[in-house]
Design goal:
Chain B: This is tRNA N6-adenosine threonylcarbamoyltransferase. Chain B: Its EC number is 2.3.1.234. The complex is a heterodimer. Chain A is of the alpha/beta class. Chain A is built from 5 helices and 9 strands, in the order βββαβαβαββββαα. Chain A folds into 2 domains: about 1-100 and about 175-190, Nucleotidyltransferase, domain 5, CATH 3.30.420; about 105-165, Nucleotidyltransferase, domain 5 (2-Layer Sandwich), CATH 3.30.420. In chain A, the strands form 2 sheets. In chain A, strands 3-2-1-4-5 form a 5-stranded mixed β-sheet, with helices on both faces. A 4-stranded mixed β-sheet of chain A has the order 8-7-6-9. Chain A starts with a strand and ends in a 22-residue tail after the last helix. Chain B is of the alpha/beta class. Chain B has 2 domains: about 10-130 and about 315-330, 2-Layer Sandwich (Nucleotidyltransferase, domain 5); about 140-310, ATPase, nucleotide binding domain (Nucleotidyltransferase, domain 5), CATH 3.30.420.40. Chain B has 12 helices and 10 strands. Chain B has a 5-stranded mixed β-sheet with strand order 3-2-1-4-5, sandwiched between helices. In chain B, helix 6 packs across helix 7 (about 190-200), helix 6 (about 170-180) runs parallel beside helix 8 and helix 6 packs antiparallel against helix 9. The chains are: A alpha/beta, B alpha/beta. At the A-B interface, helix 1 and helix 2 of A face helix 2 and helix 3 of B. Bound molecules: zinc ion. Zinc ion (ZN) binds near residues 120, 145 and 147 of chain B.
Chain lengths: ~210, ~350
């Protein structure tokens, strides 16, 4: 089964083709650029590039997997609408996976995965041997509760390393598209119905009701 | 073209529009409207008294694919029947535009149907072809909405459109919203002001006509300004209340609306006359205003100018207008856009489509 995987929940604009066998995933082609404002320009050409590299055409894609955040909304939405529209256009199902799981899912021990939520905040979740505990949250780095994590990874961790109570990886880590496909594999292999993708916003829109 | 062997080459084009608070998907064949599906988030914005960009963007993402499916169902077509996919690339709200642009690129990529990133303003002009047929060129376009108040010269709808004038501050539609609020009328203000004004006296008080003084004729001959008008209405209402008197809502609405329509139509007619153009196209959400239509009709007639406008539903933002422009571009043989174009919130009027350029 050939899967198009996309994630735009961080400043990494990412696309990949991943082959899924029963319990194995193979990365076939991959495009990534760290460009926080480039999602809408870069993503479609990246998908084209991934298909070209693999010598494949859009109709060779059997399913689409997309990171659904949490992530800064404007960029996140580009990836999600691209995934949904590509799937609709190609007549294949689309599945959503929490983008943070693409980071935390690869960790061992007790880890804090954190991405940059802008406005001096981070999106975060705690992972025990790669399994997330609870729902992702958003807060200022200094306001993190005691998570008991041994270390922190992700763009939010490296950016705010100085404010975190746990040691952070110096290099930012971005959601791993192969991991996202692995996490969606049970649904993919079961031929589950495609999903209506709903972003993990975690914040309400900023707006004040008009005073009349 | 996906036509039968009859040889007629009327392009079938889907248009996607997400520049503000309407998720619009329209489908046309040549000048024929096949579907016009719109999902609006206007009610979600009402309690904020204006369009909240983040609320609009969230609604676009939710509505995008279902609205495309609805448009295709309404038209009785599949994506494989399309000769082109057109999308508003700008101007508009950046985050909102990106949802439509992202979707259009993905549909084009998945189906192989050529993509056209187009200008929202030219699309407002093109929509008239769905009702009244091909546009005589040159023509003057008067676009009035919550986002724009623009006089355009359309020499070639497929590529040569220039701006003669525009609002230097608020768009006319914004002024309607703000004055409606002052009068205690709901959002969006246009339809409510229009209704109230029908019961009011247009000459009740004379509100200022922005940029209409002799000194403005050199630098702002075809430009508009509505923020002074809004302030004048606010001051008038305040003074009235300080005097302990009731505010005659219908009369104020009528007098305000008259000031807006007077200056819009006067300048559009002037532009047509001075450029030797005999057709004016009226478009944008405010073009649904009954007084604007009546006054424009009256003055165009006096000036010997043909006035064209589509039905109100096609004046507001919708996908049909984008499809109409796309269909015109396909028929004119304009090159499709590359997949790397951005959503451009301040896209220049003169860029009709992003063919072969960035
Ligand atoms: Zn508009």
């Amino acid at each position: 089964m050939r899967v198009l995987a996309l994630d735009t929940s961080t400043s990494a604009v990412q696309a990949a083709l991943v082959d899924l066998d029963d319990d194995e995933q193979f990365l076939i082609s991959f495009r990534r650029e760290i460009n926080a404002r480039g999602h809408v320009e870069k993503l479609a050409p990246f998908i084209e590039g991934c298909l070209d590299d693999a010598g494949k055409r859009p109709k060779d894609v059997d399913a689409v997997v997309a990171g659904i955040g949490p992530g800064p909304y404007t960029g996140l939405r580009v990836g999600m609408v691209t995934a949904a529209a590509f799937a609709d256009g190609a007549g294949v199902p689309v599945y959503g996976v929490c983008s943070l799981d693409g980071i935390g899912g690869n960790t061992r021990g007790r880890a804090l995965a954190a991405t940059d939520a802008r406005r001096k905040e981070i999106y975060w979740a705690v992972y025990e041997d790669g399994v997330r505990e609870g729902e992702p949250q958003v807060c200022r780095p200094a306001e993190l509760p005691d998570t008991g994590a041994d270390y922190a990874i992700g763009e939010g961790a490296s950016k705010y390393a100085g404010e975190l109570a746990v040691p952070a990886e110096a290099e930012p880590v971005y959601p791993d598209l192969v991991k996202l496909v692995e996490l969606a594999a049970p649904r993919l292999l079961a031929g589950a119905a495609g999903e209506r993708l709903t972003p993990m916003y975690l914040r309400r829109p900023d707006a004040q009701p008009a005073a009349s | 073209m996906n036509n039968d062997s009859s040889g007629s080459a009327e392009p079938v084009v889907m248009g996607i529009e997400t520049s503000c608070d309407e998720t619009g998907v329209g489908i046309v064949r040549g000048h024929e409207l096949l579907a016009d599906a719109v999902a609006s988030s206007v009610e979600e914005h009402a309690r904020f008294g204006g369009v909240v960009p983040e609320v609009a963007s969230r609604a676009h993402l939710e509505a995008m694919v279902p609205t495309v499916q609805r448009a295709l169902d309404d038209a009785g077509l599949t994506l494989a029947d399309l000769d082109g996919i057109a999308v508003t690339a700008g101007p508009g709200l950046a985050g909102a535009l990106m949802v439509g642009v992202g979707a259009a690129k993905a549909y084009s990529l998945a189906t192989g149907v050529p993509l056209y990133g187009v200008n929202h303003l030219s699309a407002h002009i093109a929509v008239d072809t769905l009702e009244n047929g091909p546009i005589p060129e040159p023509a003057i376009g008067l676009l009035v909405s919550g986002g724009h108040s623009t006089i355009m010269m359309v020499e070639d709808l497929a590529g040569k459109v220039t701006q003669l004038g525009a609002s230097i501050d608020d768009a006319a539609g914004e002024a309607f919203d703000k004055v409606a609020r002052l009068l205690g009328l709901p959002f969006p203000g246009g339809p409510y002001i229009d209704r109230a004004a029908k019961e009011g006296d247009r000459a009740f008080v004379r509100f200022p006509r922005g940029l209409s003084a002799a000194k403005d004729q050199e630098h702002h001959r075809y430009d508009f300004s509505f923020s002074g008008l809004k302030t004048a209405v606010a001051r008038w209402i305040e003074a009235r209340r300080l005097d302990g008197e009731d505010v005659p809502v219908n009369d104020v609405a009528a007098a305000f609306q008259e000031a807006v329509c007077d200056v819009l139509t006067r300048k559009a007619i002037l532009a047509a006359k001075e450029h030797g153009v005999d057709t004016i196209l009226l478009g944008g959400g405010v073009a649904a205003n009954s007084r604007l239509r009546a006054l424009a009709t009256e003055r165009a007639e006096q000036a010997g100018i043909t006035l064209r406008y589509p039905r109100p539903k096609l004046c507001t933002d919708n996908g049909a207008m984008v499809a109409a422009l796309g269909s015109h571009l396909v028929a004119a043989g304009v090159s499709p856009s590359r997949f790397d174009f951005p959503a451009n919130s301040s896209m220049d009027v003169e860029i009709v489509s992003l063919a072969d350029r960035l």
